[in-house]
Amino acid sequence: MVSPPFFGRLASGKPLRNGIGRAIAQALVGEGVRTVFADVSLERVSAAIGASGRPELAVPWVGDLARSDACDALLAAAEALGEVSHFVHSASPPRREADHALAVDRKTWQEMHAVNLDAGFHLARGLAKRLIAAKRPGSFLFLTSLHAGTPRNLPHYSTAKAGMAMLVKELAKTLGRHDIRVNALVPGAIAAGGFVADASLAKHIPLGRLGEAKDLAPMALAVLSNKLSGYVTGAAFVVDGGLSLTNWFEPPVLDD
């Protein structure tokens, strides 16, 4: 079985040591699933594959999912490997606390929506069309956010994730009759990827600690599995240590 793209797209100059997409992809190859590792950085892709339990099952792909031609290229690369039955979309540009509603520029806004929402839709639809034509089942998973429903002082990020949350429901309703399931994981404060965690945040979390990428991977495997979650679609699974039970965000401090 070919398991398809696991995306991470961060502009950090340093290779990622962790990340939710990376953790899920590594968990999948650990289960014997052939998996495409996709990122905007060859260095990060190579490092993620090298740290995998079974690197021979990992296929590298490098491109910028803010570009529509890159999405087309990734679909073509995945199709060339054989039937793609599972899809995880965890791509997102980096977030900067300075990009609040009165400061975020047009390019940053557009890029966030292009990677999170536009790429997620076009890739999922492209893969779904192939599965429908082949009369084969599928399982898609989107990484959204608690801030799909709660303001984050980063309107480009929150609105993109809110769009993804509805996209999951739209796709689940449309594709269910074709035996293609579409679900979401909703991470909380996960010290991975583009989130630079402040340790003091742990006091707001009922389980008393920040999350890690490895906290998401087992749930991702369970939701992707047609054996374990075969009657689950259009659902959003919160993995946050209880953080969503509180609301600690204050409005941003604006410059005079």
From TrEMBL:
SUPFAM superfamilies hit by this protein: NAD(P)-binding Rossmann-fold domains (SSF51735)
Any one GO molecular-function label of the UniProt entry: oxidoreductase activity, acting on the CH-OH group of donors, NAD or NADP as acceptor
The organism's place on the tree of life at top rank: Bacteria
Annotated InterPro entries: NAD(P)-bd_dom_sf, SDR_fam
A Pfam family it matches: adh_short_C2
Signal peptide bounds: none
Gene Ontology process terms (BP): fatty acid elongation
Protein family per UniProt: Belongs to the short-chain dehydrogenases/reductases (SDR) family.
Protein name: SDR family oxidoreductase
Source organism of the structure: Bradyrhizobium barranii subsp. barranii
Origin organism lineage: Bacteria, Pseudomonadati, Pseudomonadota, Alphaproteobacteria, Hyphomicrobiales
